[in-house]
Amino acid sequence: MLYFTKTKEQALKNLNSNPEKGLTLDQIKKRHQEFGLNKFTEKKPPSAFIIFLKQFNNIFTYILLAAAAVSFVMRENKDAIVILAAVVINVIIGFIQESKAQNTITALKKIVETTAKVLRDGQVQVINTQQLVPGDIVLIDAGDKIPADARLIEAFNFQVDEAALTGESKHEDKEAGLTLKKGTLLADRKNMVYMGTVASAGKAKAIVTTISNKTEIGKIATLVEETKEDKTPLQKKVKKLSIQISFIISILLLVIIIGGLLTGRSLAEMFMFAVAIAVGAIPEGLLIAVTVILAIGMRRILKRKALVRELVAAETLGSTSVICTDKTGTITTGQMTVKKIINASGHEARDNNLEQILKIGLLCNDVQIDNHSKFIGDPTEIALARAAQKASLNKKELTQDLKLVAEIPFDPYAKYMSVAYKENTSTLIYTKGATEQMLNFSKQIYLGQNNIQPLTPEKKDELLKINADLSQKGYRVLSCAYKKLDGDKLDIKKVCCENLIFAGLIAIRDPIRPGVKEAIELCQQAGIEIKMITGDHKLTAKAIGHDIGLEAGSDEILEGEEFSKFSYEELKNKIPKTKIFARVEPKNKLQIVDILQDQQKVVAMTGDGVNDAPALKSADIGIAVGSGTEVAKDASDMVLLDNDFKSIEKAVEEGRGIFDNIRKVVLYLFSDLFQEVILIGGSLLLGLPLLISPVQILWVNLAEDSLPSFALAFEKKEKDVMKRPPFKLRDPILNYEMKTLIVIITIVSDFVLLALGYYFWKKTGDLNLTRSIVFTGLAIDSLFFIYNCRSMRKALWRFNPFSNRFLTFSTIFGFALTLVALYIPLFQNILG
Ligand code: ATP
After folding, report:
1. Are 510 and 334 in contact (CB under 8 A)?
2. N or C: which end of the chain has fewer CB within 10 A?
3. What's this model's pTM, rounded to 2 decimal places?
């Protein structure tokens, strides 16, 4: 049925639903059976077989396969078989690791489920969007993702961004009252909303018409299933590094072969040298090790109650140098309570006066009560609804003879909310918002029934002073105003904010989360600047700042309205120094991110509303709070499941651990690689036969090195990660320290290995014995120096050698395999 051609009454009748109560439980059950879940048929993830085949697709495997082929041709059948076996083992290891990492990443992505507010059985419920059925009455607020295709039945200043569907990022005004002609284009159907698009302003009630694959977006399913995973900068860097190294080694190889041939060695022998170097020198395990570390890191961060949505964030976290955090809900608990109510004469409000203020707070309020008698909605409004409830005010009773005819929902730009109720032939306007705003909107003050007086400039100053005093004590303050007008056909946008009667101020306490102060101190120790951003009054923010150890002088606080007063150059100077941003508008957040990034800072920024999305996208790490809007979550790299600032600090800590571990693996594998190449090159220069054969190198790499390098991924983060400055994103992976270490490890171990080889070869002339000695030396050496790679800051003997179980196990396993190679006849034979 084309619902846009029908009236809303027809739609309700056709879908057999009730706009005030929603569907009954019985209806829902039946419709579930008939229509199924509201989700798209999922595309199958790449099959295990495909992931398996993918493992063959890399230079390392090509080289090994070529080496095996040439070995066959040269009748070195045993070698050829071992090399092929190595290919298989390597492919299996790669396959296991990649599937595990992939599974972790996919599983994590599924954790954030989308919910929808519905009216069912007469009550408001928050349900998983998959549970929606046709006929459900959904309640939509700004920032919600539209959960299914639906016909509007009520809309207040409601706008939808339909870019996901029409490709045009325009905010479309929507209206419930229209009926449209057949053939109206999708983009022009103003009385419909479509799944996957986003409510950008206002609020609405709608009846679900279509779900799952049959929705407009479901029909173009390709648009939805976009799971292309880009490589992170670090993965790209590692890949580049591997390619560079392989390139250098190829040149080296060529030089060695030509040099060898010129000095009279045989082609067959030189070929063995070439294969040995190729086998030893390609950092095949590196890229997958990085992916594994990132995936493990994501899981660790999740344990700290932060969900990394993009792999890239897991690594960027470690480099974070500024955290811009919202105050409300992240630094504070967001569980607000009304503590003081002050009337327009500046005293504690009582009786009729108190009732009037509470009534405005209750009627100009979007809070809903769900099926468990729990309030759902904005914490500020919940506080107001509770205070009214305590004073025995009941919204149903108060609105018995009223009809809500218009509403301007709260919006952080305007900092107020307004509603209009029709009462017989007149209209009641109730408005609440930031005190400065309310005083600007008001002409009179309410001092009790029949006692309404003009708002003089002196009175205004007095009330502003009270507002400042309350703010200074850390209260979140808002004010209420109202008026009654004759007539019921009004333009609310105009009348809601002029000539109001100011009723009073409400001071709300939002307690600070326990432990935030300590977390902020830790961040500061770690060289991370903290900046608090809030829509509240600057004095409220300053008081809260004081309590959490974020002491801000008057030149370290910047107000939203100052942004437009300063030039860009001035802002560039001011913003980095500012600790508290008060009364900001969402667009200021974007300016803050831009300027800080311009100064090479790595910025983490939190947000919750629709308007925060651009800043979240633009920040290096956009962090949405778990209770935030779907839009904010979509735009973010990480979601704070518990909304708590402490979780950001913990995530940064884990991020630093991830970066450390990646460096450790790089250090280990590269030291290994250089050791082997120099060992082989050295044999040639010293005029010795090849001191270690290709199959022996393969054995060392696979049996003794690959497991420990994997174990490094499980290395716990070091205790002092938060005591050092942040990593710089532009830092190369291999820093000066690491290069030095690689050189030292290579020189020392190769010196010993070459000396041993030289001695035994000259003394015994037994190549098998000599190789066995060098092989054992190389194996044992790499099992030992992995312990060096566990920390680049602390000496080996400063920490418990057994604290990483995986490492202990893989070291023992590595030793055992060395013994197997040396003493079990079958392997003695294969490995020569
Ligand atoms: P942040 O979440 O970034 O810390 P905030 O949530 O504290 O910011 P806003 O919600 O934008 O900031 O609130 C700014 C001001 O608007 C408050 O100080 C209060 O006076 C007023 N205000 C807040 N919520 C409402 C509301 N629901 N209705 C009317 N006014 C409100």
Report:
1. yes
2. N
3. 0.82
